[in-house]
């Protein structure tokens, strides 16, 4: 009986740990315009992550940076976060290229809710580098 209880506790613990590992930055599946509307309603800023499926630095950031608990807490508290893939969704290509001048992936844009850009970062970042960029964006008004 004790063996069964121990096994159940271990299984339950593993499930909790797995669920916690998957927590991270909450990227919303909404449009660029909807992100700004939601940010205004919630009193937040907007984070736009231009990335694509074939981008190794993008995947690295998905696995390490956006799952970091401290980073995720700051991002989720202060930003409406979205990912945009202009390769997959060609309707985003013109804005990415002409308006935001995206020339490589990942490109991370931080905005005020009114649309003014706070900062822009290009290329893969580790947790420390990303948090420096994030803190700079958070210090902007």
Structure description:
The structure is a single chain. The chain is α+β, with helices and mostly antiparallel strands and about 140 residues long. It is about 50% helix and about 15% strand. The model is unreliable at about 5-10 and about 10-20 (pLDDT under 50).
Short descriptors:
141 residues, four-stranded mixed β-sheet, 6 helices, alpha+beta, globular
User: What is the terminal-to-terminal distance?
Assistant: 60 Å
Q: Please provide the count of β strands.
A: 4
Order of helical and strand elements = HHEHHEHEEH
C-alpha-based Rg, rounded: 18 Å
Enumerate the strands of the largest sheet in spatial order, edge to edge or round the barrel: 2-1-3-4
Strand content: 15-25%
Shape, per Cα inertia axes: globular
Instruction: Summarize the amount of helix as a percent range.
Output: 40-55%
SSE inventory with pairings:
Elements: H1 2-21, H2 32-42, E1 45-50, H3 56-64, H4 69-78, E2 79-84, H5 93-99, E3 107-111, E4 117-122, H6 127-139
Parallel strand pairs: 1-2
Antiparallel strand pairs: 1-3, 3-4
Helix pairs in contact: 4-6
Outline of this structure?
Helix content is 50%, strand content 16%. By secondary structure, the chain is an alpha+beta fold.
């Amino acid at each position: 009986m004790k063996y069964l209880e121990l096994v159940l506790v271990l299984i339950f613990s593993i499930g909790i740990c797995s669920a916690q590992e998957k927590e991270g930055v909450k990227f919303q599946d909404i449009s660029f315009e909807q992100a700004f509307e939601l940010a205004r309603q919630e009193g937040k800023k907007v984070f736009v992550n231009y990335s694509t499926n074939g981008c190794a630095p993008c995947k690295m950031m998905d696995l390490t940076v956006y799952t970091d608990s401290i980073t995720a807490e700051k991002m989720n508290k202060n930003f409406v976060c979205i990912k945009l893939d202009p390769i997959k969704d060609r309707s985003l290509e013109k804005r990415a290229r002409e308006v935001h001048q995206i020339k490589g992936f990942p490109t991370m844009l931080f905005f005020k809710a009114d649309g003014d850009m706070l900062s822009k970062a290009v290329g893969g970042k580790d947790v420390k580098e990303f948090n420096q960029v994030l803190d700079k964006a958070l210090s902007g008004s």
